[in-house]
Amino acid sequence: MNLYETVLLVNPELPLKDAQELSEKYQQLIKKQNGEIVNTEAWGKLRLAYEVEGHKEGLYFLIQFKSETSVLQELEKRFKYDDNILRQALVKIDGKKFKLKKKSDEKEKKERARKGSPKDTEENAPKEENVKTAEESSPAAKESAPKEENSTTSEESAPKEENTKEKE
Question: How many domains does the chain have?
């Protein structure tokens, strides 16, 4: 048995309850054909990049499953003749390259990375003592120090020139 995933784009005018039943109908079809459902997700109503059959939005459903290739032909045939399915994609997943993750897991990981967990920031942040000793001991830091002072004095003189221009 191979690992597959299908994404269904369902008519947004269909009530959410009916759309979920439609997804469950295809899951039952996979199970009847001796397939195994690995993961299902309802992504909800999302805006489309372009109009599909006159719709600017669509309901998305993901079904990941293991089955034989004979199931794919039956699924594609039924998707084709179902008026409530605007588009569908059916893809074979290479289990060695891809790990199946839920969309919610990815969101949590991004939020943690954006916020930064307290453990990560405390452990990875350099200690102030180490930073000072590194600055004092490096010869490049000593050479660049006077240059920084010169740059600040030129910056301080620049606003004075602007003030004189404004007075005129």
Answer: 1
pLDDT tens figures, 68-107 = 888 888 899 998 998 899 999 999 888 666 665 666 666 6
In a domain, 12, yes or no: yes
- Look at residue 41 and tell me if it is in a domain: yes
Distance CA 59, CA 48 (A): 10
Asked if residues 5 and 64 have their Cβ atoms less than 8 Å apart, the reply is yes
In a domain, 157, yes or no: no
Tell me if 47 sits within 8 A of 56, measured CB to CB: yes
Q: For 59-77, how does the pLDDT look when each residue is reduced to its tens digit (9 = 90+)?
A: 999 999 999 888 888 899 9
What is the Cα 14 distance to its own chain's centre? Answer: 27
CATH code for position 19: 3.30.70.60
